[in-house]
Amino acid sequence: MKISFMTLGCPAWDLDTICTRGREYGFEGVDFRGSLDEIDIPRLPEFTTQAAATRRKLTAAGLTVSGISTSIRVCVPEERTRNLEEARRTIAVAQEFETVNIRVFGGGNLEHYSRRELAKYGCDCVESILTLDGARELHWLFETHDLWVQAQDCRLLLDHIPDPAFGALWDMGHTWRVGREEPADSWAAIGARTGYTHVKDAVYDPASPLAMEDGWHYVAPGTGDLPLAASIQLLKENGYQGWLLFEHEKRWHSNLPEPEEIFPAFVSWVKPLIQSENSHLN
After folding, report:
1. N or C terminus: which one in the chain shows less Cβ crowding within 10 Å?
2. CA–CA separation, 58 vs 64, rounded Å?
3. Beta partners for 168?
4. 265 vs 64, 223, 258, CA distance in Å?
């Protein structure tokens, strides 16, 4: 397994800082979810007209673009046109940076549609995306998030969209903290189609000033209540060879630790967990 960080966790870093710090801390990849003031990176020249220069900087720093995190919500029929427009822009960037992992959301509104209807809308949207030039060369991965967290619901969405170009992004915090399910149960539902992962830790402390609406707040990986080590062990046992992505939500929660503190802490924590596997592969 390889380790990556998301730019959501370093919203104030410019590209040069991303390259310098990423290399310094020992990461192998970076997932772009925004850059400075823009959340939609295909709108920035650094990823379009200036993409070659950006790629050279990343390569010199030993960093691969592990994925691109979009705002696409495939199960929202009202956003179909916007989804296709964003998908088209994202495909062009993915091709420039030779990455295949594209994060999408399921989303949807259960007040207006049944979950099965939402899954059907998701299928229709994904099928439309896959008609775009270059789309089938990529892996469109829905995050275990929003309405699609618990195993039975994730399985429903995957069953409705059986195309191998569509799969799951396992946010191992959401499935336990929000879905209240053991890692083995989540893996049983999505494991065979898991192409990417998100890692973050949290504690339940409603009295804390840092607590979110559900009473949880984020902490350094390995110091919280989430079964992250067990989840990573499950990945290893099942031969997962993809990315472990540290998703630090600094852009959305400004009171979280600075990336200069939390990013190296993640690397120090995670490397021993995957070291035995990587040593075996060598």
Report:
1. C
2. 7
3. 142, 194
4. 21, 11, 11
Q: What is the dihedral of CA 178, 182, 188, 192, to 10 degrees?
A: 70
- What is the longest distance spanned by two Cα atoms in the chain? 52
CB-side neighbour CA atoms (13 Å) of 56: 4
For the chain, domains (ranges, CATH) are: 2-281 (3.20.20.150)
* Cα gap 99→64, rounded to integer Å: 8
Q: How far apart are CA 183 and CA 60, in angstroms?
A: 37
* Residue of 176 and 279 predicted with greater confidence: 176
Q: Pick from 228, 242, 147: which is nearest to 191 by CA?
A: 242
Instruction: Kindly state the tokens that stand for 18.
Output: 């991303």
Q: Which helix (H) or strand (E) holds 198?
A: strand 194-199
- Beta carbons within 10 angstroms of residue 68's beta carbon: 23
Q: Which two tokens stand for residue 164?
A: 């191998």
Average pLDDT over residues 78-90: 97
Answer whether residue 43 shows pLDDT above 60: yes
Query: What pTM does this model have?
Result: 0.94
Q: 184 in helix, strand or coil?
A: helix
Q: pLDDT confidence of 138, banded at 50, 70, 90?
A: very high
26, amino acid identity:
G
